[in-house]
Amino acid sequence: MLGEGILKGLAETARNFLGSYVSKDRLTTVQFPEERLPHIEAARSFPFLVYDGEDWQQGMRCVSCLICEKECPPKCIFIEKSKDKKPDATGKPQFYPVVFNIDVSVCMSCQICVEVCPFDAIKMDVEFELSTNDRFGGLLWDKERLAKSNAYYGKIHPTEAAAVDAQLAEERAKLEAKAKLAAEAKTATVATPPAQPLRETSETTEGSGA
Ligand code: SF4
Ligand code: SF4
Q1: Torsion over CA of 81, 87, 92 and 97, rounded to 10 degrees?
Q2: pTM above 0.90, yes or no
Q3: Pocket lined around ligand 1, Cβ cut-off 6 Å
Q4: What is the pLDDT along the chain (210 residues), one digit of tens a residue?
Q5: Residue 47 Cα, ligand 1 centroid: separation in angstroms?
Q6: DSSP-assigned letter for residue 59
Q7: What domains are there in the chain, each with its CATH number?
Q8: Nearest C-alpha to atom 4 of ligand 1 is from which residue?
């Protein structure tokens, strides 16, 4: 029927308009900041650096591989790699970022840094109330400002964080099993007595024959 679509659209508008007086579900306006919508898991604002455990310096996952710095389209990540290594959360010696800065006034929240990081060390935050009148100190975030715990990551992106935790646990278990096997092989080598030299054996054989 000609004009059926328009009539359906008007009926929907009328339903929403009248329904907004009686049903909260029909109200599309949120009285922010008094009212807030719960954030959805896929929401993202700016990146943060994940650390394991309680100590952000000790547990920071970033090993300063510089991949995110190279791949960031607007070049708003600046990293200075350490010369030495220190143990990460699993005790493995790793390089670490001496400096890790992100200029969030330039960041376009594209998430490319997250996608290219091989260590699950950088993730997207959902925090968005970040306005400041300090253009440089307020929006150029250093590693201390960027560091957030894995527990926080689990709170804002539970599904994604659970998958990452499971994958990391599997990788750590494999590494531990490999290290255990290597240690057992080393112990077995030390315990096995060295083979007798060939000359001694032939002398023994000759002696016993006479
Ligand atoms: S989200 Fe995009 S723009 Fe922002 S730091 Fe990561 S790669 Fe750069
Ligand atoms: S955040 Fe990830 S990609 Fe960026 S330097 Fe650290 S380990 Fe490398």
Answers
A1: -20
A2: no
A3: 47, 72-74, 76-77, 102, 107-113
A4: 788 999 999 999 999 889 888 887 777 788 888 988 888 999 999 999 999 999 999 999 999 999 999 999 999 999 999 999 998 877 789 999 999 999 999 999 999 999 999 999 999 999 999 999 988 889 999 999 999 999 999 999 999 999 999 999 998 888 888 888 888 888 887 776 666 655 544 444 444 443
A5: 7
A6: H
A7: 47-165 (3.30.70.3270)
A8: 107
